[in-house]
Amino acid sequence: MRAWQVRETGEPNRVLQLVDTPQPEPSWGTVVVRVRAAAVNFADVLLCQGRYQVRPPLPFTPGVELCGDVVAVGEGVTDRRVGERVIGLAALPRGGLAEYTVMEAATVFPAPDSLDDEEAAVFFIGYQTGWFGLHHRATIQPGDVLLVHAAAGGVGSAAVQLGRAAGATVIGVVGNERKVEVARAMGAHVVVNRAREDLVDVVKDVTGGHGANVVYDPVGGDSYQRSTKCVAFEGRIVVVGFAGGTIPQPALNHALLKNYSIVGLHWGLYARRDREAVAQAHSQLTRLANEGIARPRVGERLPLSEAAAGLQRLAEGNTVGRLAVSPGLG
Ligand SMILES: NC(=O)c1ccc[n+]([C@@H]2O[C@H](COP(=O)([O-])OP(=O)(O)OC[C@H]3O[C@@H](n4cnc5c(N)ncnc54)[C@H](OP(=O)(O)O)[C@@H]3O)[C@@H](O)[C@H]2O)c1
């Protein structure tokens, strides 16, 4: 079968190689799937660069999440069956950018019927992360104002839809005009193009000076710093990621003076420590998907052969909507 492999770490378009490799066998607690579609996530960029929190042994195949059909079930797996269409996490070092891969059964769930293969492939991490960030970490309430950075991106666009579903007024921040349209189509009430406008002015204007109750930040750096200037009294800044490349060093005296909270979010830890909570979130998210409220926007559907180029575009911040790679396209 064909699979992309990283044999040394570096920029995705330099280090990824498409190779022929044997089809995997299931081990204890895993299932083998035929990949229908795999998502391209920022985590895959970091994996290629050797900068992700998990460093699989070389060579490895990136592609942390996917949609596939179960073709073999390992020992110890009781709740999955051959032929089932599923979504969830790949069991690295075997990722989803391949024709077949292995998934940890504990993080495999039925794919929502209302989503096609590419939509289902990009659904799991983004919406799970949004659910835990907004509901568990930020306890978002109807009527809150939610500020979402990278609102046309993977986790950001999911947070826009889930924030709106929770009854919040959503302000999205994006990097260019094309992304303004995407963030608006995802449901943001107001969209700030950070290349042209200052988000602090817009948030203060929209909220009559009160600020945003919840900030969802997958970018870090300057985006985080600007958020602290427009977070509301008793607001919550959810630290989701550092796609901008700079990890902020927050001034805790500022958090004290303005009475706001800085809350970390590592969704993968929920997946490891509280599978029941992840399963409950999956049923809520499946309901929202089937009601048409939660639906990822797939900007590009790529054949397997174009995965490395797609990953590189994501690394450079040049993608709009989600990228999915489908081996069936060639
Ligand atoms: N905490 C968790 O559990 C969790 C879970 C999933 C993902 N994450 C993290 O969330 C972040 C976003 O992941 P994603 O897959 O959803 O990616 P993404 O949002 O699709 O892509 C990153 C976006 O960040 C913005 N950005 C701002 N400055 C950038 C820069 N210097 N370089 C590249 N992008 C820049 C760009 O949007 P604009 O141009 O519109 O600003 C870009 O589209 C990553 O850091 C990822 O590791 C965390």
Please provide a brief summary of the model:
It holds the Pfam family ADH_N. This protein has helices spanning 12-15, 42-49, 117-121, 124-137, 154-165, 177-185, 199-206, 221-228, 252-258, 267-273, 275-290, 307-315; strands spanning 2-6, 16-20, 30-40, 65-73, 85-90, 100-110, 145-149, 169-174, 190-193, 212-217, 231-239, 261-264, 298-303, 322-326.
Q: Could you characterize the architecture of this molecule?
A:
Residues 11-325 form the Enoyl reductase (ER) domain. This is NADPH2:quinone reductase. The chain is an alpha/beta fold. The chain folds into two domains: 2-123 and 296-326, Medium-chain alcohol dehydrogenases, catalytic domain (Quinone Oxidoreductase, Chain A, domain 1), CATH 3.90.180; 126-268, Rossmann fold, CATH 3.40.50.720. Helix content is 32%, strand content 28%. It is built from twelve helices and 14 strands. It has helices at residues 12-15, 42-49, 117-121, 124-137, 154-165, 177-185, 199-206, 221-228, 252-258, 267-273, 275-290, 307-315; strands spanning 2-6, 16-20, 30-40, 65-73, 85-90, 100-110, 145-149, 169-174, 190-193, 212-217, 231-239, 261-264, 298-303, 322-326. The strands form three sheets. Strands 3, 4, 5, 6, 13 and 14 form a six-stranded mixed sheet that branches. A six-stranded parallel sheet has the order 9-8-7-10-11-12, with helices on both faces. Strand 13 (298-303), helix 12 (307-315) and strand 14 form a beta-alpha-beta unit. Bound molecules: NADP nicotinamide-adenine-dinucleotide phosphate. Residues 41-43, 125, 129, 150, 152-156, 174-175, 179, 218-219, 240-245, 265-268, 317 line the site of NADP nicotinamide-adenine-dinucleotide phosphate.
